[in-house]
Amino acid sequence: GRWVEVDLTQRIAERGTGSLLAPSSLSFRNLLLKLEAIGSDPSVDGVVASLGGQELGYARAWELRERFAALREGGTRVAVFLEAPSFVNAYIASSASRVWLPPSQPYSPQGLTATQTHYAEALDSIGVEAEFIRIGAYKSAPESYIQSRPSPEEVEQTTAYVDTLYDEVV
């Protein structure tokens, strides 16, 4: 049967770009539409996708994984070649019929992390005082400018977010 290659090692932009003098980039929307068209084409038996190079956020990773799962449910086989086996790429690949990993490519999943950066001390050192009106304990957006450490509420929110992502990936 006929198989279609989908190269996901290149940059995938929110909006596609392209000009005469610059390389074009694939838009995420067009990628999803392409996969949908492949799924409705009876002459296509399968898709081979190369993953690596760029990191998709978890929302895009979820959408891409769902699209691969829909292809499989529709009878189109999906094979993924993990060129760069990150945690996110392994999550996407988990919906494929088959996953290939080069023998020379180490895979050591690191899991999920979240980083909270606070600028209050840096702003103080240059004499800048940030002013915000705080509406509630869980409205933590200004904290990174007015505090040197995250509040317990900010830690709770971030932990809940990471736990939700982890549960989805598992």
Elements, N to C (H/E): EEEHEHEHEHHH
The number of helices is: 6
Mean pLDDT: 85
**Class of secondary structure makeup:** alpha/beta
Distance from first to last alpha carbon: 33 Å
**What fraction strand?**
15-25%
Unreliable sequence segments: none
* Order of adjacent strands in the largest pleated sheet: 1-4-5-6
What is the radius of gyration computed over CA atoms, rounded to a whole number of angstroms? 21 Å
- Share in helix: 25-40%
Biggest pleated sheet:
4 strands, parallel
Number of strands: 6
Shape assignment:
elongated
Structure description:
With 170 residues, the chain is of the alpha/beta class. The protein has helices at residues 28-39, 58-73, 87-93, 120-125, 143-146, 152-169; strands at residues 2-8, 12-13, 26-27, 44-51, 77-82, 98-100. The protein is elongated. It starts with a strand and ends with a helix. 16% of the residues are buried. The model has no long low-confidence stretch (mean pLDDT 85).
Helices, strands, pairings?
Layout: E1 2-8, E2 12-13, E3 26-27, H1 28-39, E4 44-51, H2 58-73, E5 77-82, H3 87-93, E6 98-100, H4 120-125, H5 143-146, H6 152-169
Parallel strand pairs: 1-4, 2-3, 4-5, 5-6
